[in-house]
Amino acid sequence: MIQLLFFVLIGVALLASLLLIGRRGSVRAEGDSGALLEARRALDSLQGGLLPEELVQRIFARDDLDYLTSSSAPKAVRDLFFTERKRIALSWISQVRCQISSLKRFHVGAARSYAQLGLGTEFKLACHFAALLVACRALRLAVYVGGPYAAPRMVGVTAAAAASICTISEQSLAFLNPVQVKPFANSSLPS
Amino acid sequence: MDVEQARQDLCRRTLSDIQRPLDRLIYLASMRDYNTGVYHHEGLASRFTEEVACEALADCHREAFGELVICPLHELVSQLDAYRSSTHTSPREFLTAWGRLEPYRVAVPVQADPLSAEFLFSNFKIALAVLESQLDSRPAGLAA
To answer: Using the beta-carbon criterion (under 8 Å), do B113 and A73 form an inter-chain contact?
Structure first.
């Protein structure tokens, strides 16, 4: 009876492993253009919209608050400013996190099919992803509790880490960039 | 190349007279058909083509938007006040209309990054509140 139970358990474990492998296989569907497009969009959004240094500096810049304080703006205006800036800062953090998660999904699921990344780069990337997602959570908590100026150094570190991930991801998606084809020279055409 | 030439032509002939990014943003947004999102400029289209003129206008619109997004709050306040003066509207009327209608929401380029656009809207809201508070603190005769 105990032997039978043992073999049944082994059977169930094997079946569960098969199901797990089957599910992972469907995630890594080679040739899935959806995963590529999602990753490309995430990369464009990060590089073009969320990470430009000037924008990040402006969102978290203290000089706007200093301007309101020095110009003796009423408390209602300063409160409005603080609420609005906090809302934008939180939105920035959650969008960075969302796009980074999207890039992570691409690397976990599909990147290996397209990109020739070395083991070292993949390991570095995995560490970057893990650190960045934790940093985003910590930053979100800090801004939620202390407002937009609670952790200026953490903002810089997060933006730099995200930019570094973008650089590596760009290598993985480089084959999607249009190739510059030289026009045919007239002289090479048969006369 | 044509688009770049058209862009330079637009900057030289028209936009050089519009110094403030806010004024340029509003002017370029007004060149866009709200139903189609296509920009029109008779003069530019006659020198180039409709498509090239549209691209050049869209480029300049994105540029003005980009400048305004990273503009410090005090500059936005002064640009908004200067724009208000140029319209010859009374400050109170202007602030009420802009506060209620939020016309800046339709002045952003179509392909603007959502967070950047939201950031600019937020700054407009604050700038309007600043101008309103300045107006309230002025003596009654000057505020009209």
So the answer is: no
Is-contact A129 A97, C-beta < 8 A? no
Q: From the centroid of its chain, how far is CA A179?
A: 26
Whether pLDDT at B36 is above 70: yes
Tell me if B31 sits within 8 A of B6, measured CB to CB: no
Contact B119, B69 (CB under 8 A): yes
pTM of the entire predicted model: 0.81
Q: How confident is the model over A80-102, as a mean pLDDT?
A: 94
Choose between B115 and A16: higher pLDDT.
Answer: B115
A62 at interface of B, judged by CB pairs closer than 8 A: no
In the structure encoding, which two tokens stand for residue A48, read together?
A: 């073009």
What would the pLDDT profile of A37-84 be if each residue is shown by its tens digit? 888 888 888 888 888 889 999 999 899 999 999 988 899 999 999 999
Predicted local distance difference test score (pLDDT) of residue B130: 96
DSSP letter (8 states) at residue B32: B
Looking at CA atoms only, how far is residue B10 from chain A in angstroms?
25
pLDDT at A188: 44
Domains of chain B by residue range = 2-69, 73-143
- Numbered residues of chain B with Cβ closer than 8 Å to any chain A Cβ: 69-70, 72-74, 113-116, 118-119, 122, 125-126, 129-130, 133
Burial letters A101-127, b for 16+ CB under 10 A, else e: ebbbbbbebbbeebbebeeeeeeebee
Q: Which amino acid is at B60?
A: C
Q: Quick one: which of A165, A179, A177 has its CA closest to A43? A: A165
ipTM of the complex: 0.88
Model confidence at B118: pLDDT above 90: yes
Which residues of A are less than 8 Å from B115 in CB distance?
49-50, 88, 91-92, 95
Contacts of B122 in chain A (CB under 8 A): 84-85, 87-88
